[in-house]
């Protein structure tokens, strides 16, 4: 999960470079920075899914093999998405042209959405079956989805209206960024809850790994 947050930091930095005009549209470096952002976005989604699947103990979480696999697979995801983006922007590929962005659309919107959807389903399974209805975790997961949906709606649906109503001082990207920040905060809180770093969450979990049931968990907490 730490790799996910480091990827997120990298994504934030490259987004600031693009959005603040450090590399302005039309410059020689702009296409490369945007392609990097496309690849980094895919890595963020993939690392989140990888961390989510680790909860099912498909592999030994934290082992050298697991971390190495995460790094290699993330590098592969980044390279593929970066090449699709830069070939599309530069028109270097046969089917990848700046007037034919279907492949880029599929990689950036469809595949990333699929990875996020799989992560959500996997975490719902953990909350409802592995942890047997952990309401704290479900609440954090609900808020994660709410803030993520709000960020997308504010950015793509109401950004222009917000800009006009506020006399062009701000647009929807400000509120979208705030919603995205809350979304990431809830992802961290969700991860914190399901890893049982805080004893308070035991009281709202019907089954606790290595403890057996809620009654025994409560008894241990009292002691």
TrEMBL record:
Top-level taxon of origin: Eukaryota
InterPro entries assigned: Chs7
GO annotation, biological process: cell wall organization; protein folding; protein transport
Gene Ontology CC, one term: endoplasmic reticulum membrane
Single GO MF descriptor: unfolded protein binding
Protein location: Endoplasmic reticulum membrane
Primary location group: endoplasmic reticulum
Coiled-coil positions: none
Keyword set, alphabetical order: Cell wall biogenesis/degradation, Endoplasmic reticulum, Membrane, Protein transport, Transmembrane, Transmembrane helix, Transport
Membrane topology: Multi-pass membrane protein
Membrane-spanning segments: 6-22, 34-56, 68-89, 101-121, 133-157, 169-191
Function: Chaperone required for the export of the chitin synthase CHS3 from the endoplasmic reticulum.
Family named by the database record: Belongs to the CHS7 family.
UniProt subunit comment: Interacts with CHS3.
UniProt protein name: Chitin synthase export chaperone
